[in-house]
Amino acid sequence: MRIVVQEWERVLLYRDGRFEEALGPGRHRRARWRRRCVCVVVRPRLLVVPGQEVLTADGLSVRVSLTVACRTADPRRWHEAVEDADAFVYAALQVALREAVAGRTLDELLAARDAVPVDVRERVGTAAEAVGVVVESLALRDVMVPAELRRAAAEVATARAQGQAALERARGEVAATRALANAARMVADQPALLQLRTLQAVEAGGATVHLSTDPVVRPAG
Prior knowledge:
Elements lengths: L1 E4 L3 E7 L2 E6 L2 E4 L5 E7 L3 E11 L5 E12 L2 H6 L4 H18 L3 H6 L3 H16 L2 E12 L2 H43 L2 H13 L17
Antiparallel strand pairs: 1-4, 2-3, 2-5, 6-7, 7-8
Helix pairs in contact: 2-4
């Protein structure tokens, strides 16, 4: 028989139920008698783990989803080790994702989202290798927090912003009061400074000076 293997395929040849050889890309001729061919696709593929309901270490419920790029590195092991290698890897990913999330608090999960795929990859690597699959990349696609937690987080953020604004206003008022107190001390120590500042304002054109016409009353004596 004539066998044409594409670049993204490998063909496993069995004779009387026993593995004989793996055929790479190209054209091959083999006797058909007592032989069977199994085609295995080795190009990268995407596995999507949809939203999983998981409890974090602090007892909060979140839904997380994962995308995984993998490929078949060992076609024979992929075909022979288990009945459905991709389903086996998918189940291992689900378990690894749950364990990685359950070991973190919600704040840790949101603050270090990049750490979760690394943890999942380490946990699932041995299981995937056992069935001839290599996990090339993982990405935590979504972290879905319940609506009540989102509202609580928004209230906390608003309260924090309001507190910060009040603190800045208080700092400004203290600074202004301190500046006035310093100015008052300087004028009390050196009265001529007030007259000098008045003349500077008049020269700059930024002030109007009103001269008093009230007579100066001197004490008798």
